[in-house]
Amino acid sequence: MNTAPKPRVLVARQVFDEVIEKLAGHFELQYNQADAVWTQDELIARLQGMDGAFVTGTEAIDRRLLDACPQLRAVCTMAVGYNNIDLAACTERGVLVSNAPDVLTETTADFGFALMMATARRITESEHFLRAGRWTRWGHDMFAGADVHGATLGVLGMGRIGQAIARRGALGFGMSVLYHNRSRLDPAVEAKLGARYVDKATLLRESDHLVLVLPYSPASHHAIGAAELALMKPTATLTNVARGGIVDDAALAEALRERRIAAAGLDVFEGEPAVHPALLQLPNVVLTPHIASASLPTRLAMAQLAADNLIAALGQGPHAGRPPTALNLQVLGAR
Ligand code: 8YV
Predict the structure, then answer these.
(1) What is the pLDDT of residues 265-318, one digit of tens each?
(2) What is the distance between the alpha carbons of residues 53 and 12, in angstroms, rounded to a whole number?
(3) Which end of the chain, N or C, is surrounded by fewer C-beta atoms within 10 Å?
(4) Predicted model pTM
(5) DSSP of 227-284
(6) Selection from 78, 67, 130 nearest residue 101 by Cα
(7) Is 140 a catalytic residue?
(8) Ligand 1 centroid from CA 79, angstroms
């Protein structure tokens, strides 16, 4: 019988009960099923003595936290984006980090496409009008928006989710697809997606519907600001399902107010859950609370993947030592 003490793990946010049960089979577990809001100091206090942390996109795993929790060996997030985790600092300290790619690609692409369509066809704006009792008669141009089918779709950031959105546009809606990315895709992949690589300025100038799907980093901070918005067509829409901070929200609100672009669909915001007050006042923006990956099966798959990573990273289960989606697997070899 194995009498070694179980590793200790903290689950920072509320998560599916079946995921808690799975983790409890391998770890001495502390969790937060009440989804209490913890300050950074409280998170640090609760991580004392913990070997692992199950986190989401909302906890900051920074140098101060890592220095205060020297026993931490694994941080596993149920998000694909990990800009809230200082990966370099974790690697320096031998802390394994994993994210949750792939399982959310199609769900997030569905939502990106839906948000782009709602923006182009003014769905929420017209619903508010109807609910307010203002629909008294039909009008020839009432809530007339932009077409999606046959239009030019621009994708900034052509990773897994960007490609899934491009596929929807090209194959489902007969769109011409342009993209810009740090690196160009293989020509065979471009041909399959029907996507053409262009420089960023061309993408901004030629897109009817521009969708942002790039990761956040200091390099992508305000990748869309006043200068970029000025290059876009006055009839164009902008959709952001990537991260807050990629768009300069103040500059966007100004461009929307002055109708320098037609409309925007935003699922992510600078400093969320706060939303720039100017955006809240505008009719030509569709706003959603960071839910692009939020289908129930996908959120469960994301959480299960984070749990599987944590179990394997802390030497438990059938895949001990082989976390499926580690970002710095080298730290395990160095232990
Ligand atoms: C998550 C996300 O909902 O995966 C990501 O990067 O932005 C979202 O899918 C959120 O971050 C989960 O913590």
Answers:
(1) 999 999 999 999 999 999 999 999 999 999 999 999 999 999 999 999 999 999
(2) 7
(3) N
(4) 0.96
(5) HHHHHS-TT-EEEE-S-TTSB-HHHHHHHHHTTSSSEEEES--TTTTS--HHHHT-SS
(6) 78
(7) no
(8) 4
